[in-house]
Amino acid sequence: MKLFYIVMLLLTAVLPTARGQVSGTDSLKRLLSKTRQDTTRVLLLIELSFRYQFYKSDTALILAQQSIDLAQKLHFSKGEIRALLRHGEVLRFHGEFPQALEEQLRALQLSREIHNYEEEARSLGSIAAIYLDLGENRQALNYLFQSKKIYERISKLVRFLLAAVAAMNWLFVFDGCSGKE
After folding, report:
1. What does DSSP assign to residue 167?
2. pLDDT tens for each residue of 35-79
């Protein structure tokens, strides 16, 4: 059972960072050089920070901080949350756990303020990963369970919305076949 929770922790916090790190950095840098100071730039900075995380981690920290600053300037809350998560993840990679935890908690608070449940769940998973690194397994499981609850709730909502769309499509087809205008 304990293994299940550790696997869930990895899936919610670590797996999103398992993609290839190096590929595409040149094209991202080209896009970044052509992009205005807007929300697209925030997202590009976050992605570039992600790509540099394991081989140019100092650059990844700088890019993540730039994305936080720009997101705040633009009042782009979702981008700020993602930037905080990225910054916290790079700090965690550096072994700077208190600072990483601070960034993840800021992301959690902001995601709750704007009712962004997916980012809230992601923040909780990232916090759990930090506590796991610190050897505080009970605390890690606490945050992991909170993340799991939200992901389950989101999943139920998605299934409901898909069923509602299917029902609406069925009604549309049914009404269309009935000859009513």
Report:
1. H
2. 777 888 888 888 888 888 888 889 899 989 999 999 999 999 999
Contact indicator for 62, 52 with CB cutoff of 8 Å: no
Neighbours of 7 (CB within 10 A): 11
Q: How many CB atoms lie within 10 A of CB 48?
A: 24
The token pair that represents 57 in the structure block: 């981690």
Q: Which CA distances in Å does 122 have to 26, 83, 107, 150, 175?
A: 28, 12, 9, 9, 42
Give me the domain span that covers residue 35: 2-178
121-141 pLDDT, tens digit each = 999 999 999 999 999 989 989
Burial state string for 104-114 with b = 16 or more CB within 10 A and e = fewer than 16 = bbbbbebbeee
CA distance 61 to 87: 6
Judge contact between 153 and 117, C-beta under 8 A: yes
N- to C-terminal Cα separation, the chain: 58
Q: Which residue has the tokens 């997916």?
A: 118
Our count of domains for the chain comes to 1
CATH number, domain with residue 6: 1.25.40.10
33: enclosing H helix or E strand: helix 25-34
